[in-house]
Amino acid sequence: MNAKRPAAETLPDFQKITLKEKVHEYDDVYTFTFTPSKEVIYTPGDAIHLRADTMKEGSGRRAKKMSFASSPSDIDIVFSMRIRGDSAYKRALGLLEVGEETSMFKSNGSFHLPTDEKHVVMLAAGVGVTPFVSILSSLEQVEQDIKLIYVSGKDFLFQDILTNPVFNQQKVSRDEFRESLLETIEGGDDNFYMISGGEGFIRDSLAILQDAGIDESRFLLDQFTGYENWS
């Protein structure tokens, strides 16, 4: 018999968070800034279980993993996501007003910048850029060669952070992505690849890398579950 999963409220890192700001970025993409009730301890690239407390019981999962877009040194915590009408969870979060509370728990992850790699290539699509924002904004100094290839069909998020001369950001459309990645592969035999985005983006990126002969030990994935396309 399976052990019953403990209630989120009983977990030691459970806490209430208050919505400080909600920004409509483009289409159905929103960025949420929350003020936590106590210090949040996490590593850049981690995710948290963000709960929609106002969701009705029985209408689906009330908590899902969301990657931080903030730095652990920040007081507030930041997430970006698509608010789609077919998700009761996303609808509940989308209806939150500034000053209202929800909750979160269980910060974890393994999508961390490998400090032993000299050349790191970050591949992101849409809101998949969020863990990279957390990582890059947390760097006190950059001792590695870091390149971010950021794919978007609309606007590019967090340009106040990502427009930084200490690393190379290449903003491309979906049609430009394959050529851009192939040029990067050809230009560096010892590149290490970090990939973040929807299921379709992960799949297409892996296909390009594997067709080019890149061993699976040379990439790290952060798949945004539920985003079938490129997020």
The poorly predicted ranges are: none
What's the β-strand tally? Answer: 11
- What summary fits the major beta sheet? 6 strands, antiparallel
| Mean model confidence by pLDDT | 90
Secondary structure tally, helices: 5
User: Which strand order do you get reading across the main beta sheet?
Assistant: 4-3-6-1-2-5
Would you tell me which CATH topology of the largest domain applies? Rossmann fold
Separation, N- and C-terminal Cα atoms: 38 Å
The percentage helix is 10-25%
Structural class: alpha/beta
Number of domains: 2
Q: Could you say what the CATH architecture of the largest domain is?
A: 3-Layer(aba) Sandwich
**Which CATH C-level class of the largest domain is it?**
Alpha Beta
- Quaternary state reads single chain
Coarse shape: globular
Give the CATH superfamily of the largest domain: Nucleotide-binding domain of ferredoxin-NADP reductase (FNR) module
Give me the Rg, rounded.
Answer: 18 Å
Strand content: 25-35%
Secondary-structure element string: EEEEEHEEHEHEHEHE
